[in-house]
Amino acid sequence: VPTGDVITLPLGLEGLEVVGQEVSPDGSLVVKVQYSRASVVCPKCGRPTNKLHDRRLQRKRDLPLREQAVILRLIRRRFRCVRCGVLSAKCRWRPLVFSEPHEGFGRGPKGRSRRTTRRLREQLAREARVQTVKRVGECFGVGERFVRECLRDWAEPIIAAEVPPGYTPRTLSVDEYSLRKGRRYETLVCDPKKRQVLASLPGRDGNALQEWLEQRSDPWAVEAAVIDMSLTYREVIELCLPKAKVVADRFHVVRRVGRALD
After folding, report:
1. How would DSSP label each residue in 209-256?
2. How far apart are CA 175 and CA 189, in angstroms?
């Protein structure tokens, strides 16, 4: 490639260095990367080791570059510690083998390493604030569920920082939303007067909502609670907020009337 047609850009991922790059047949830019450290700390004894055991390639998605998909091929290394290990069935000493830390991409809900970079997930969350989840998924080539998860993971620490511990508004609104239609739901608690999200709680069975309400500093201060006519939410609110009047959300009332009329 002529030198005049090349633009050099920094990778921008701390701790990683570029080993090579190429353009795949489908037009994606494939960048091979690895961690720049020469040694890692053994998780058992806490001592550094540079004894390399093997290498494995892992595929990661990154932010697109000028509407061109970017795929990172991470060379994930495994090290061995000669000080730590176990005896095999034949009474032979086997050194401890472990993978190098994977802090560059984070871990998912089940502890598995992420297949996307943090900056891609943060960009999906920011786009989901001003566009529909479906539209964001189509633009970036990902699923709607993944976009919702990115938005939730990005918003949770922001909400926690903005809402003081034990904060009790005079009016509450409670509703459910789906992360995976028909399978996974969460409960959203808001302050309708301030138009502020207070918490996103797992499930819709009322257990997480009851635990959150019991942590309020002054439950007697809540004057009204707006819900979607759910008996589960009603029972929890009547139990935890003794002075709150339960108000049915107008949207859900009109929807039920419309269904009955049809």
Report:
1. HHHHHHT-S-GGG--EEEE-S-HHHHHHHHHH-TTPEEEE-HHHHHHH
2. 7
Dist CA 226 CA 245 (whole Å): 8
Instruction: Write the pLDDT tens digit of every residue in 30-55.
Output: 999 998 888 899 888 888 988 888 89
Q: Is the pTM of this model over 0.90?
A: no
- Cβ count near 190 (within 10 Å): 19
Give the percent of the chain with pLDDT over 70: 92
Rounded distance between C-alpha atoms, residue 68 and residue 89, angstroms = 51
Query: Per-residue pLDDT averaged across 221-246, rounded?
Result: 89
* Pair of tokens at residue 124: 């999906």
Q: Are 162 and 196 in contact (CB under 8 A)?
A: yes
